Structure formats: C-alpha cells, structure tokens
Fold this sequence. Notes:
This protein has a single domain (about 1-115, about 125-190, about 225-245), classed as Rossmann fold (3-Layer(aba) Sandwich). It has seven helices and eleven strands. It has helices at about 15-20, 20-30, 75-85, 95-105, 190-205, 210-220, 225-245, and strands at about 1-5, 40, 60, 90-95, 110, 120-125, 140-145, 150, 155-160, 170-175, 180-185. The strands form two sheets. It has a nine-stranded mixed beta sheet, with helices on both faces. It has a two-stranded antiparallel ribbon with strand order 5-8. Helix 3 (about 75-85) packs across helix 4 (about 95-105). The relative contact order is 0.17.
Amino acid sequence: MKIGVLETGEIPENLLDKHGDYPSMFANMLREENPGLDVFSVKVCGGEMPKSPHDADGWIITGSRHGVYDDLPWIDPLKEFLRACINEDVPVAGICFGHQILAEALGGKVEKSRKGWGIGVHDYKVENLPMWMEDMGKGFSGHAVHQDQIVQQPPDSTVVASSDFCEYAALVYGDPENPKAISVQPHPEFSAHYVGDLIEGRLAPVLPEDRATAARESLGKPVHNKEWGSWINRFLSIAADRAES
C-alpha cells in the first residue's frame, strides 16, 4: 500500500534533527504495525499538490501552524483535492490541522476557539464507536496542540470521540463501518518529548503560564499513539478491501 503524506506544515527547524519531520513521524507510527508500508510526502505548504487522488492508495493530512481560514494560495486547492479524494473513494486521514481542513472541505466550520489553547495530554470520551475501533473502549488520550477547533459538524460525518474542551475530537465520514475518511484533533504521531520541546521552544512566548505548566505536568501520562496507528491502518485496509471488491 502506498500512502501519501500531505505536508501542510513543518516541524521547527531546530527540532528536526532530534525528532524528524512529519513524514517520518507518520511513517514510524504506521510502520510499527505495517512495516512494508510505502510512505511518501507532498509538500503542500511549499506549493506542491498531487496530480490525482490516485497517486496514492490513501492520504494523510498533517498538522500545521496555519489556520484553515488563512489566506494562503494552497488552502483552496487542498480543499478541492480532498473533495476529489472523497468523490473518487480514495481514503483520507486528517490530523489536527488535517482534521480541521477536511471538515471545512466537506461542509463543516472551523474557528479559533474562545477556549484558548488545548495543549498537553487531553482525555477524550467515546460517543459513537465503529466495530473496527472497538478496542478504544470508553475513550483515548492524546497530545493536543491547537487553538482552532471544528465548531460546526460536517454533513455525513459521525462523532467518534469528544471532550468538554473539544466537542468534535474525532470524526468518521460516510458509513462508520466502511468510512471514506477519518480524522482526529490531537496528534498520535507526536511523542511527549517532542511536545515538551515544542512548548519550551516555539510555544512558550504565546502560551498562558498556567496552561504551559499544566501541559508540562500532563506529559508523563500514557497516550494512545500506538492504538491510533493501528486504527488508521485498519481504516486504510477497509478502504483497500472496498476498492478490490
């Protein structure tokens, strides 16, 4: 299976050597369960765009420091590309910014939240759980790094998980048991060490001190990164089976 990573943002340059870039983070997460996965990247934030949804068997949209409402030349073409993927039954998984822009592309609404920064380990409770994600149990925990949130649920989507802070924390699109897309607000590709370095580096000047302190203290809690790697792999396998049938 060939998976394309749509890079909509970049890891801060001073953290690259230590933590790697977005494509390597996602490749490591997915290959833990599926070592033979072919992962390549398309630098959308640098002006690149795939020629066709069928350039890959599935796509992952990364996080970004940008907002989906920013006036950037690649935002609208990316939304158009994501709609084409859904229309042509090519699976898409969105993470953080990817979660948000997929929602906007498919009829939802995203805004900078009045709740402020979601940062550190957050807990999310299950709302509607597809059978192929049943080992999520009652919920999951993940590394949150965001100010923006989905404020209007897209049509033809189902809320998988939520929290008091983030109402639409994980979504599936189409038939929940045979979905066309899946997305999640926190970052299953991020390690606690990376989030800690991000807080101390790029985010320290903009974070309220109480939230920064709480975030630092939360980073020792276990998260469900490995499980999200498994769920995304299952989602991609479901889509591959659908394409072959």
